[in-house]
Amino acid sequence: MRKRLKETVKYIFPDCAAINVYSSFDIIGDIAITKLPVFTPENARAATAAITQRHKNIKVVFVQSSAVTGEYRVRSLSRVFGENRTCTVHKENGCQFEVDVEKCYFSPRLSHERLRVAKVVQSGETVVNMFAGVGCFSILIAKQVPTARVFSIDINPVAVQYMQRNILLNRVFGRVIPMLGDAEVLIKTQLEGLADRVLMPLPEKSLEYLHAAVSALKLQRGWLHVHTFEHATKTEDPAQKTVCRLHETLAKLNVDFEVPHVRIVRSTGPNWWHLVADVLVLNRYST
Ligand SMILES: C[S@@+](CC[C@H](N)C(=O)[O-])C[C@H]1O[C@@H](n2cnc3c(N)ncnc32)[C@H](O)[C@@H]1O
Questions:
Q1: Is 285's pLDDT higher than 70?
Q2: 43 and 136 share a domain?
Q3: Which of these, 69, 179, 197, 189, lies nearest to 131 by C-alpha position?
Q4: Domain harbouring 54, CATH code
C-alpha cells in the first residue's frame, strides 16, 4: 500500500523546513517500511509520526537502510519505532502470509499481479513457481483454483519455512508443494516436462533462467510469466524492449512462441520499470 507521506509530515510539522521524507512507504501486516533521503533522528521521527497517525494499527516502523540485494533479495532494516520484531502476518486477496520482512523478500506492491495471474490459471493445471518467496503467488493460485497444483520453489531456507507455515495457514496443503533449492537444478532433476504454466517472479534473473523454465513446460503448449526490469527513456517503450529481449533469448531455445501480453507492474526508479510478459510456448522441441 502506497501513501503520500510528505503532506502528512508538513501538516504535523508545519514550521520545520529541515525535515525531509520520501512520500511512499509499504505496509506489511502491522509493520511499515519507509526510506529516508537522509537518515537523521528528526526525519525518522517525522516519518514515524506521519505513518502512525494515519495507520493506528502499525506497531513497528523500519527505515530501509540498504537496497534489496543478494541471492535472497533481502534488505537491511533499522527499527525506528515500536516492538523489537521483524515478523508479521499480511492479509491480501483473501490469503494470510506470515513473513519475516528482514529475512525474506516480500512486496505488497505485487498484490495486483498475483491476483491477475491467479485468475488466468485453468482448472487442473500444473504450475511451477520458480522464485516463490514465502509462497504468495502459489498459495493464491491454489486458493483460486482448487484443482491446480503448484510446485513452489525458493532457494532461501527461511522463505521456504514461512512458505510451509503459509500453506497450512491458508489450507492448501498437498496442492502447493514447497521445494527448497535452486530452481534450475530442481526443474532438471524433478520437474521437466510437467508444467502448463511457469512463473518467474525474479526480474533480475528471469532471462538467464528461461531455458530452465521452458524445459519445465509440457512439450505441446504452456505459458511463461516472465518478469523483467527495463530501462526506457521517454521516447522508448519498455514493453517493446522486453519483447525484443525475449525474442533474442527464446530464439536460441528451439521453441515456437508468441508474446500476447506485456504489462508494466510498477515503476522502480526514474526511467526504470518492472514488467511482466505472458509468453505462450506453442511447441517445445525436445533436444
Ligand atoms: C522477488 S522474490 C519473489 C517474490 C515472490 N514471488 C512474492 O510474490 O513475494 C525472488 C525470490 O527468488 C528466490 N531466488 C533467487 N534465486 C533463486 C534460484 N536460483 N532458485 C530459486 N529461488 C531463487 C529468492 O530467495 C527470493 O525469495
A1: yes
A2: no
A3: 179
A4: 3.30.300.110
Give the total number of structural domains in the chain: 2
The closest of 276, 240, 286, 281 to 257, measured between CA atoms, is: 281
Is the pTM for the entire model greater than 0.90?
Answer: yes
pLDDT tens column, 71-120: 999 999 999 999 999 999 999 999 999 999 999 999 999 999 999 999 99
Which residue has a Cα nearest atom 4 of ligand 1?
133
One domain for residues 163 and 212: yes
Average pLDDT, the chain: 94
* Three state DSSP letters for 101-117: CCCCCCCHHHHHHHHHH
Angstrom distance (rounded) from CA 93 to CA 223: 23
Q: Does 127 sit in the ligand 1 pocket, CB within 6 Å? A: no
- pLDDT band at residue 8, thresholds of 50, 70 and 90? confident
- Is any ligand 1 atom within 6 A of the Cβ of residue 100? no
Is the CB–ligand 1 distance for residue 153 below 6 Å? yes
Distance CA 250, CA 29 (A): 39
Q: Identify the CA nearest to 130 among candidates 265, 226, 253, 6.
A: 226
Copy the grid coordinates of residue 32: 511499515
95 occurs within a structural domain = no
